[in-house]
Amino acid sequence: MKKEFRGKKQRVKRAGLPLSKSCVIGAALIASAGFASAADEPKDTSNFEGGDAGNNWVEIGAGGMLTSGSNSQAEQSRQLPNNAFGGIQDLHFQHDVAKGVTFSLDGRAIFDNHDYGLNLLLKKEDAYFLRFNYENFRTWYNGNGGFWPPDASWYPFPNGDNALALDRGNISFEGGVMFKNAPSLTFKYDHYYRDGEKSSTIWGQTHPGLSNPPRGLVPSFYDIDEKRDAFQLDAKHTIKKTDFGVGLRYETADLNNTLKINQYPGEPPVAGVPQDRKITDRQDVSYDLFNAHAFSETWFSPKLLFSAGFLTSHLNNDVNGNRIYGGDYDVAYSPNPGNGAGYTNLISSADEHQYVLNLNLMSTHLKNFTIVPSVRVQTENWNADSSATQTLGNNATGPFASNADGDDFDIRERLDLRYSGFTNWVLYAQGEWTQGNGDLNETGGIYLGSPIQRDTETDRFFQRYGAGVKWYPLRRVSMDVGGYYKQHNYDYDNTVDNTPNDAGSPNRYPAYLVMQAFQTYDGYTRLTFRPLQNLTLVTRYEYQLSTIDTQPDSISGLSETQSSDMTSQIIAQNISYAPWSRLYFQLGFNYVLSETKTPTSDFTAAVLNAQNNYWTLTFNSGFVLDNKTDLNLGYTYYNADDYVNNAPAGVPYGAGAEQHGINLTMVRRLTPKLRLTARYGYYHYTDQTSGGHNDYDAHVLYTGLQYRF
Amino acid sequence: MTTFTSRLVATLFASRARAVTLVLTVVGLGFGAVSCRTVNRVTVMLPDVPGAKYIGSKECEQCHEKIYKDFQTADHSLLVMGGPNALNAGCESCHGPSSLHSDSGGEVKPPYSFSAGRPIANDSGANRSTPVARSVDTVCYTCHAEVRGQFGLPSHHPVPEGHMSCTACHSPHKGFAHVGGSTALRAQDENCLQCHPAQRGPFVFEHEAMREGCTACHGAHGTVNAKLLTVRDANLCMKCHFQQVQGGQILIGGHDHSAALVQGTCWTAGCHEAVHGSRVNSSLRF
To answer: How far does the CA of residue A465 sit from the closest CA of chain B (Å)?
Structure first.
């Protein structure tokens, strides 16, 4: 069998599809009863990666998106700009520059899509490598706020329906030597950045229709300016059966991010006090992170692996910031009776040390039985302090200072078991336990009635048990059944607390809780079935129930309660069908029922139980029309019907949206080296949550020309 | 002309059976015409790849000894088992039947080798919304079918756009306990902090929910709500912070929040904005 096809010539010969056979296949399709067995079809390695003539290519392309309706929502959904774009869609070049030395280049540069990439690699196997990499891509956010149904008030982001845009990128240099029988060394420098604006769900207040009670509906956004540099040096060496490694990493960053909030926009002053206020909440964070780690992996025998790792890291950050109210963003502090709670001249710093030790063993000494015990020990300690001047209204109410220090110690044990001794079966189980404790001491703070003084001792106990089975009853059938139970318990002992938890205390967090317990029950099953050689069905079902129990301090007079239960059911179906060697279909369907229930909805209509139900459909098909042409048809569908209009009791947030997307692609081989791609996509989106303001229709066009060489 | 067309359509589609017959005939003739040509090329989609046979993971060990050994520590090693019915499972579950790859001594790559550029490894830029059969994520979705739906939701990590891949967070070849020289076990959330360092802290006043991990509030793949939030309204906080109702008051931290809940989420401006931690206020106001 393995020697069936050896030579390229032979492969090509077999690749041809005889006319008579093709006709038979066509006839079979007409009858809708016969299925060509794809496994018996000819083999053409041009469809295999690396098997085609021409390992290099460049594709230039251009396209654009035309929208009607909400441009910003279209840009967010499609992650494309609402205009034309084009450039180098894909570029790959590789060349042997010397014996055993390969140079490769990959890149893209799509202008107005802000999608750029360049990767250069010079590599000699078992000797050295040098790599340069550059990546940049843009994310679009619609930025819009909420919709208030009673009077149809809509709060769009005030920039002419253009989406907010945030660029994320990375530039890196990497080099290494890896000679045989010598230590390998690698060095890497990374520069990461984020620059732009993104939306926030921290919406500002307004009086809808100027007369309704206040609601949080006004859009806010982040102004992002982040830069990080990381230097990493790693060494690795193999001595007999053991791999040793050590590494150093230093990272330094400046994160200059600002949250910008508008409250009561357009509302007139009340008794001379301005209501329309813009808040600039700026926190400029710089940090240095140093990390050193070492590891070893030893195969004592083919049946026994021992690995160990240790790391220590030290993080230091410094923060400057303020929260200033004004008639515009980025203004200097100015006392005003319309100002809410804020602060100026924030100076904060923090230190954190962390140590981690991992020990892992894997044994397969018992036939068909794998056992993997692991243990992880982690300890960390930190301290942080801050000072600023708090402000409110016309007054700068004076300086404040706060401080916190704490430490944590956790030890986690894990045991994985796997048994494959029964023919066509695998049984597996795992258990994980974590015991932890820590101390937290906090003082100070603003807008709390009075500064706090709290010391809290925490005990943690986590446990997780999972088990499952995988069974192949037939070559064409496999089944998975599994599940797990997880419980996380937190016990808090508030040894010092100057905010007594009785009814007279204005603020009691975080010392208010004395216990929280998180539990999750999860079970799933998956059936993979191939009723025909060319038809695969994968069906998966998962059920999950989670609860959280909470117990306040007994002095509050409140008892333990179940603060939530969350259920979700996920049904997923995949169908892959290749009725013909030149045609395939892929269909994916997901239906999800998910609900988060808290007792809140029993007492107020302002907060309903949260529904997160949805279903999605993905269809993709490919068809080889002839020796030169491929066709592709895709369709996507999304539907969430979770919107409940609970205004005016509260703000309706539930997701209510529907989206259809269809696209057609044609790839035509004009010559053996030249390929033309044409693509059209149409998208239709309706959004109930925004009162239809985020609805859009979008047409996406693209054409590209690829040259292979 | 219009009348004639209307009559023609009415005649042809006078009954559903006739209409179905007509459509099938047209489609069938179309397929027949297309199929009655000599075409050398074929489509490629798992699990069947024309001309290639499954050979079993053990064969892969001959040349890929290191990966094969490491794979024993991976979650995916559950795929490998004794018995003839499971021959397809293992390396070839993702890389496809590899007989030609093996026979050629590696000259012919496996059908799914995920090498640069070919087939298009993502749906980036103008290519998006067309699932590529052999992209990394599409292959993962074959078994992890529910994840495909999650990445199709309005808020998702940019996997469909090609700016991330599943392997950015999940190692397919090596176990979680062994990745990175065994020190990746440091924290699951380290995956998130690689790209979201502003949430790293430490803060003066921490939010203890951070100890439960980012997934206490965010979905890792995608959600129907903005910012990957698992819940968009106050229930996100209430699920941990609801205590009880006394005298018609909804007590959170012993303080009546009845009027505040009417205004929107707990993290509405000025209330509890600093959801990841605060440097000035223990109630995480800002």
So the answer is: 16
Burial B75-88 (b: 16+ CB within 10 A, else e): ebbbbbbebebbbb
Confidence of residue A92 (pLDDT cuts 50, 70, 90): confident
DSSP annotation of B210 reads G
Q: Which of A344-369 are b and which e, b meaning 16 or more Cβ less than 10 Å from the residue's Cβ?
A: eebebbbebebebbbbbbbbbeeeee
Greatest extent of chain B over all pairs of C-alpha atoms, in Å? 82
DSSP state letter for A163: P
Q: Does B215 touch chain A (CB under 8 A)?
A: no
Distance between CA atoms of B209 and A514, rounded to whole angstroms? Answer: 14
| pLDDT interval class at B118 (50, 70, 90) | very low
Please name the residues between 26 and 65 in chain B that touch chain A, using a CB distance below 8 Å. Answer: 28-29, 31-53, 55
Instruction: Reply yes or no on whether the pLDDT at B185 is more than 60.
Output: no
Residue A697: DSSP 8-state: E
Any bridge partners for residue A359, and if so which?
A308, A375
**Residue A510, preceding bond cis, omega within 30 degrees?**
yes
Q: Tell me, yes or no, if B154 comes closer than 8 A to chain A by beta carbon.
A: yes
> Which residue would you say has higher pLDDT here, B30 or B168?
B168
Residue B188: CB atoms within 10 A of its CB come to: 14
Q: How far apart are CA A599 and CA A77, in angstroms?
A: 34
pLDDT of residue A112: 87
Torsion of CA B21, B26, B31, B36, to 10 degrees: 110
Is B261 at the interface with chain A, CB within 8 A?
A: yes
177-196 in B: which are within 8 Å (CB) of A? 177-178, 180-183, 185-186, 195
Residue B45 carries which side chain, given as an amino acid letter?
M
Question: Facing residues of B67 across strands?
Answer: none
Cβ-Cβ pairs closer than 8 A, A with B, add up to 607
| pLDDT mean over A421-435 | 94
Residues 6+ apart with CB under 8 A from B6: none
pLDDT tens-place string over residues B241-262:
987 787 888 888 878 899 999 9
Output DSSP code: residue A154. E
Q: Nearest-CA neighbor of A581 among A49, A47, A50, A51?
A: A47
